[in-house]
Write a structure and sequence with these properties.
Elements lengths: L2 H17 L8 H6 L16 H21 L2 H7 L4 H9 L18 H12 L3 H14 L1 H6 L2 H13 L4 E4 L15 E4 L5 E12 L6 E9 L6 E8 L6 E5 L12 E12 L3 E2 L5 H37 L1 E2 L2 E2 L4 H29 L6 H26 L10 H8 L9 H28 L4 H19 L12 H25 L7 H33 L8 H20 L6 H12 L5
Parallel strand pairs: 1-4
Antiparallel strand pairs: 2-3, 3-7, 4-5, 5-8, 6-7, 9-10
Helix pairs in contact: 3-6, 6-7, 6-10, 7-10, 10-11, 10-12, 11-12, 11-17, 11-18, 12-13, 12-14, 12-17, 14-15, 14-16, 14-17, 15-16, 16-17, 16-18, 17-18
The protein binds flavin-adenine dinucleotide.
Length: 594
């Protein structure tokens, strides 16, 4: 085996270990890749139970009042600091421990309810929503999910109220997108009572203001010369903790304190190991799933602000004796923002509900939500910026700040390119394994059981390519859309099968193919969420004597545009300029053609 193959085997083994814990219920996104519409996960559109809704409404009212009175996003950006009074206030209104259980001082909210809270913050100030995310969605999430009772009792009460703050420290110079390449070392002491940590972390949100940091470091695997990543709870008062840069000056979300720190022979008690020893990467990826869900909520909030600002300006600014809203090219932008904001909210709600309802593996859906909403938000910000013309450029308007702030979303918590590739590869794994089963048996047709398995796999593959899945909408107005979506899922499945048969293992490196597959899958998920939401809203409207729902046009537009994009992505799988793109890039990069 050459070095590259050995590295690939290692990566596959690592991914298998991390992602596939055993037999699980078929999730919605994985189902799409197999030509199924697993309706139960998306329909009917999830609703927060009435008692929780009352509590959420109360929390939102309190939050809105606090933010109206105390949050000044422009000043936070100008001073590159979120005032302590704002942080304390967020703690008082419960935001910093929203999903922590009440026995630890939290509010015990579901993910769905928490997303509504984050949407409210995200529509006002990205610095503040990223701060809350770093503290709550990823900072204390590891404790909530993996902490022992003792650890929870010790740390959570103060973290839930904001008396103490949390951070999540994975990234290093050599471990950015390649998160598994953590170099920080954790060596066990001779008596086994503690670990000695050495190394540096960078780009860590809240690092300089956190009282507890979840830190990923490399530990020896007993009985071998290998190492694995383990999560540790580290506090800045531990001797050897050195803050190298408390606030790295930066372009956007300037209010957040993004820091760089070193651990030099820091002794961390073994009781501070968080989650299973050697399973830190699993801890990190699970935590990031939650972060990506609230990312969706924050982006939804920001997209709604884009829409509000666009409407305000289009209805007031006059040129050529008309308000801007009379021009079709302005209308086109506003319509698209409205459609996208609607879809982003639907997708966030459904993804959060998957977590609340106990789907075991939602990595694909959270990755799709993150990529989809961050890319859409960037388009929304760009569109509203254009509608404001020259005035968008000046600092008396929020738009230049919103643009600077929005840019981090496509990079943080997994760069979108990395997640796009992940979505395609994890999604295609199911059908890919079925093909492998068929292929292996055809090569070695000796084992009877193997034949039976291959036969079943073959039937599944074939069945999915001829069957159009049914989408159970209740509103007759949506039947045409549901039918179209069913046909597109079937076409997607055929395209995935064809790509797997055509490219076989090299598909693992073919990111241009992966991107189209992932993009089509994301639009299929988004369309399913929009259909589900619109169905619920139409049913509600009709129960109240109305023939249409308020957002029917936006939903309708989203579905039409999304279907068009899906058809385009699938068509480009066979009609593209990939060879020319790669030849150009390789010639410019001075690489031999690949
Ligand atoms: C403001 C801010 C706050 C942050 N907060 C935190 C935090 O709280 N905790 C934490 O641990 N980290 C944090 N990060 C780190 C963040 O998660 C990383 O920046 C991100 O994972 C990307 O890593 P990188 O910057 O090293 O980029 P690199 O890994 O160098 O990647 C650069 C670019 O290369 C491309 N690329 C990389 N790999 C691939 C691939 N396999 N395929 C195709 N393209 C690829 C992508 O376009 C990517 O954007 C923060 C970063 C910023 C900027």
């Amino acid at each position: 085996m050459n070095k590259l193959d050995a590295q690939r085997q290692k990566e596959i083994q690592q991914a298998e270990e991390l992602l596939f814990a055993g037999p699980q219920a078929l999730g919605f996104a994985k189902g799409l890749f197999q030509g199924h519409f697993v309706a139960d996960w998306v329909m009917p559109y999830p609703r927060i139970p009435a008692t929780q809704q009352v509590e959420l409404d109360g929390a939102l009212t309190e939050l809105r009042q606090f933010l109206d009175e105390h949050l000044d996003p422009a000043e936070i950006d100008r001073k590159a600091d979120i005032p302590r009074s704002v942080i304390d206030g967020l703690g008082r209104v419960g935001v910093l421990g929203m999903t922590a259980p009440t026995e630890y001082g939290g509010r015990g909210f579901s993910q769905m309810a928490n997303c509504k809270i984050l949407e409210e913050i995200g529509c006002r100030c990205a610095s503040t929503s990223v701060f809350v995310n770093a503290h709550h969605s990823i900072g204390i999430r590891a404790l909530l999910l993996f902490g022992t009772n003792e650890q929870k009792q010790r740390w959570l009460p103060k973290l839930s109220t904001g008396e103490q703050l949390g951070a999540f420290a994975l990234t290093e110079k050599e471990a950015g997108s390649d998160a598994a390449n953590v170099q920080m070392q954790a060596r066990p002491s001779e008596d086994g009572s503690h670990f000695i940590l050495n190394g540096e972390k960078r780009y860590i949100t809240n690092a300089a203001i956190a009282d507890v940091l979840t830190v990923m470091a490399r530990t020896p695997v007993p009985g071998s010369d290998k190492t694995a990543i383990t999560a540790f709870l580290v506090t800045p008062d531990m001797p050897g903790f050195e803050m190298l840069e408390a606030r790295m000056p930066k372009m956007g979300i300037r209010g957040t304190a993004t820091g760089r720190f070193a651990l030099r022979d820091v002794k961390v008690p073994k009781e501070n190991i968080l989650g299973p020893y050697g399973k830190g990467l699993k801890v990190a990826l699970t935590v990031l799933d939650f972060g990506r869900t609230t990312f969706g909520a924050c982006c939804t909030g920001a997209a709604k602000t884009c829409l509000r600002l666009a409407i305000e300006h289009a209805n007031t600014r006059k040129q050529f004796n008309k308000t801007l809203g009379n021009f079709h090219l302005v209308q086109k932008k506003i319509a698209r923002i409205a459609a996208d904001a609607y879809a982003m909210e639907a997708m966030t709600t459904i993804t959060a509900a998957l977590i609340d309802r106990g789907l075991e593996d939602y990595m694909l859906e959270t990755a799709m939500l993150k990529v989809f909403t961050t890319e859409r938000l960037w388009e929304c910000v760009n569109d509203v910026f254009q509608i404001y013309g020259g005035s968008a450029y000046f600092v008396d308007r929020p738009l230049e700040r919103m643009m600077r702030d929005a840019r981090i979303n496509q990079i943080g918590e997994g760069a979108n390119e990395v997640l796009t590739s992940f979505i395609a590869l994890v999604g295609m794994r199911g059908p890919g394994m079925e093909f492998k089963e068929i292929y292996d048996t055809m090569m070695k047709p000796t084992r009877e059981r193997g034949f039976a398995k291959a036969w079943t796999a073959g039937k599944h593959r074939l069945g999915a390519t001829v069957r159009v899945p049914e989408i159970p909408v209740r509103s007759p107005e949506l039947r045409w859309f549901a039918n179209q979506l069913g046909h597109l899922i079937r076409r997607f499945n055929v395209a995935v099968n064809r790509a797997l048969i055509t490219y076989r293992e090299p598909i693992l490196d073919m990111q241009l193919v992966q991107e189209r597959v992932a993009n089509a899958a994301m639009d299929l998920l988004a369309s399913a969420c929009v259909l589900s939401r619109q169905d619920a809203e139409l049913q509600f409207a009709q129960r109240n004597g109305n023939s249409s729902s308020p957002d029917q046009f936006a939903a309708d537009l989203f579905l039409r545009q999304s279907f068009r994009r899906i058809r385009q992505f699938l068509a480009e799988l066979t009609d593209n300029d990939d060879k020319s793109v790669l030849a150009t890039a390789n010639s410019i990069l001075g690489k031999p053609g690949k």
